[in-house]
Amino acid sequence: SKSSQRDVNIWKSCKEKIMHLPLLLTCDTLLKKIKPWPNLHWIGENSSKAYLVSERLIGEVDLHTGSVSRIHKLSSMTKAAAAINYTYNGSYIYGILTTGDLFFWDQKSGSLFQAQGIPPLVMHTPCSADKDSDGPLQVVLDFFKLPRPQNLSSDETTDNAQSAPTCSIPPHQKPYIFASSDCSKVVVVLGASQVYLWERDSAYPFSKKNSSLICGHWTVAECGSDIPLPNLQSRESQITSCFLAEGSREEKCHTTFSFIDDTVLIITTLTLKWEGLGCMVPQDRVVSAYWSYISVSHLALGLKSSQVLQEKGTLISQYAHGQSLICIALNSLQQHSKLTYLHPMCNTAVVTCICDAAAASQHDLPNSNGDNSHWVSSMCWSQDNTYVIGCLRSGAVFVATRMGPLLKISCSGDSLQFRPAVILPLHPYLHALQKDSSCEEVTVCMESGSASTPEFCVSCHPVKDQFLLSSGLRVSVLVFPENG
User: Fold this and answer.
1) If we measure between CA atoms, which residue out of 65, 37, 73, 34 comes closest to residue 49?
2) Please, which domain of life does this record's source organism belong to (predicted)?
C-alpha cells in the first residue's frame, strides 16, 4: 500500500542520514505534592493541564503552577473501578466497574453516563446444564474479585496500591478497556482469554437530554485454541488497542497482545471490522473476529535468550494514532534494548537498536550499573505519527523516527542547554544533586527517595507538536521545531 511504501522510504532515508531535532523547554514545574502522581497525560486540547487517570484516582494538574486537584465527580467511580482509560481526543474518560458495568464521563459537558456490563451478557450464554458449575459468568466475576487494596488514604495512587503484596497480579490478568473516539464501541479484555465487545445503540447518543443509563449490547469475540495468548507463566505482557476508520463506511479495531514465550516475541492481534453502521452480526450471535499472530525470535532481534528477562517492564507497546502500526520496546540486559515496528496484518518486523545510543551516552546516564536504568519506561507517538518519543527509567529522553533510528536531539531553555545527542538526561535522578549539592544533602535525598523511585513517563499533546516528561513530582514540557 502507499502508506507501507511511505514508511519504508522514511526508514531508508533515516538510515542514510541521522537528523537533528532542537527541542525547546517551555515549562518545568514541580508538583505541589509530597507523594508522586505518576503517569501524567494530556487529555484534550488544553495544553496547560495534564491528568492522572488510574483505577484509584483521577486528578488534574496545572502545568504552570504545579497545583493538583481531584475530579470529585468521578470519585464514586474510582472507588469501584476495575479498569479506566480515556479517548485520545480527550472527549471521554471511561472505565469498567467491579460490577461489570461501564461508565463514561464527558469531559466537555461534565456529564456522567453508565451502561449495563458484562454479567448480563454471559448469564445468557449457555455453558452447562448444571447451574452451579463454573462457566463464562464465573470467569468474569472471578476477574473482578481479584485482591484489591482496602482503606486507601486520600493521597495514595494506583501505583502505591499495586505495589502491595496482595496485588501482585500479572498485567494480563487484570481487566483492560479500550473505546473508540466517540465511545460507541468498547473492547474489554479479561485475562487475555476473554474478549468482549460492547456497542452503543445508535438511538441513544451521549446527551444531557437522554437518561444517564445508555443502552447497548454485548457480544463475545471467540478465539481458537491454535492462537497463542499469554498464560499464567507469562510474567510480562502488553495489551493495547487501536480504533481506525477506512473511508466513511468501514471501521476497524486492532487489539494486540505482546508477550515473550521462551526465546520468541509473540504479537497476537484480534481485528474487528464493521461494514457501515452498527454491529457486524446480529445481537444474539457471537462476533466473527479475525485473529492473527507474528513470531519474532530473539535471534532475529539481535538478542540472546539470556539477555531477555521475564519480568514487569520488559515490554512497552504503543499503536500509532488511528493507524495499523505498533511500536514495541523490548528491554534487555547489558544495554541491548530494541524498538520493534510491526503491522499486525504483515509478517514483517523492522528493528531499531536503542543500546548503541544508550551506551554512547553512558557517561550522562546516572545509576547505570545493573539497575535497569537503561530500560524504556514509557513511549508515545507524536500527534502526526512522525516520531516515537520514549524515556528511560533514568529520566533520559530519546526520539526515533517512524520505523527508523534514534535521532540526535538537543534541548534549550531557561538555564538549560543540552548539546545534540541521541539520549538526553533531562530528569537525571540525583545526578544534578551529586554535582551541585553537598554530600550530606545527597544522602538525605537518597534516603527519602529510596522508598519511592521516580516512575518516568512521556505523553504527546493530541494537537500540538510537543510532549511532556514526568517523574510524578516534576513535569517538563518540550516543543518540537516548527519545521521538524
Assistant:
1) 65
2) Eukaryota
Residue with cell 526515533: 400
Q: Which amino acid is at 274?
A: W
Q: Which residues contact 190 (CB under 8 A, 6 or more apart)?
A: 139, 140, 143, 175, 176, 196
Q: Does the pLDDT of residue 159 top 50, yes or no? A: no
- As for how many domains the chain has, the answer is 3
Contact 181, 103 (CB under 8 A): no
Its domain, for residue 388, covers 1-30+367-484
Q: What are phi and psi of 161, to 5 degrees?
A: -65, -40
Pairing of strands 81-86, 92-97: antiparallel
Segment 449-464, tens digit of pLDDT: 334 578 899 999 999 9
* Amino acid sitting at position 378: S
How confident is the model at residue 119, as a pLDDT?
63
One domain, residues 88 and 182: yes
What's the sign of the alpha-carbon dihedral 110, 112, 113, 118? positive
Kind plus residue range of the DSSP H or E element containing 147: none
Report, as an integer, the average pLDDT of 306-319. Answer: 86
CB 392, CB 375: distance < 8 Å: yes
